[in-house]
Amino acid sequence: MGVAPRLVALTEQLLGAPLPLRLRAWDGSEAGPAEGPVLLVRHRRALRRVLFRPGELGLARAWVAGDLDVEGDLYQALTALADLVWDRQRAPAAPRMLAAVPELLALAGPLPLPVRPPREERRRRPGPAHTQRRDRRAISHHYDVGNDFYELVLGPSMVYSCAVWGPETDDLQDAQGAKLDLICRKLGLRPGQRLLDVGCGWGSLVLHAAQRYGVRAVGVTLSTEQAEYARERIAKEDLTDRVEIRVQDYRQVTDGPFDAVASVGMAEHVGAARYQEYAERLHRLLRPGGRLLNHQIARRPLPDESDYRIDPFIDAYVFPDGELAPVGRTVGLLERAGLEVRDLEALREHYARTLRCWVRNLEQGWDRAVRLVGPARARVWRLYMAASALQFERGRIGVNQVLAVRPPDNGESRLPLRPRAWVELTS
User: Which residues lie in Basic residues bias regions (predicted)?
Assistant: First the structure.
């Protein structure tokens, strides 16, 4: 019997369910459904990785190293595997795992079995998460991989958060422009105001706000490569007198007050233990009556929040120390910091569509991406973006824009009355 039939039988024994994909093993044998994408087990190293890191991390290592792959539609393959991968109740029970070990060892080959993790995996460091030094390293792991690579994936907008799509919007660049403009309108920006962009990325929002709304803007990032790119864009547009980019932690910003603060796709890096401090610092940086736009990915609440665990693949290869929280907790902590939450807009479907555009850009430019960052890192980005798109589509995670105000003493918010003044321009 070839390897593939043995692997399929073993997998179904472990999972207690049929394998929904065809499988092709390193010896050329195949087994499983005849139609649809094919799961490729290119080398017995894949089994060694899973044996010594059972679960998602072992599978991730095999994927990143190229020992596992998918032939055909990646979305279709991930959709077929979704319930098996994401449903924690489907995890193999200990007796089934123990019973499968002899067969796994036989297929994995002779000793020694351990395999070094791919070098793209971040090294876990002792000590508490979300210190300024550790956050700087985590951000560098994800963002300092080359601006050319991000240009390929993100397109000309260089915006790394979900776009806002309208009924007649088919172009990613237009949808990202609509998102930037929506943020500026929600913040009520006017000429001469000061804007702080926390986690400014490659400078797209501060540039848009300075060019279209006449503000003076400060953008802070922990990524040196992002800062260099943003400064070049600002100089090219002759805006160095009105836009400043700093390599600086948000906890080091002391030159408030600002009329408005934007935090777009940054709060996921803050962590639960630091979130109250984050909210309080942003409150202090706002002038009375100033507005905060907090754009943040959210997860579903759990019956017992102590059960929350950071996704091991994301933590090891994508966003080290990144944490997601339910939107209700986020709103509560912003309010506890003294901010008045005035609007919440859910954009879950918008992010799914944006991610599919990024995946398409990556796949169309695959050879160049591999030249820029290597095959392993390109594989990391393709998997995490495709899987994230499905997570948003299935409602497992969402993304929300929360608009809040630092209340002035007289209680005057200066926000428009209902209906939302900014909605008609994006509907």
Answer: 124-136
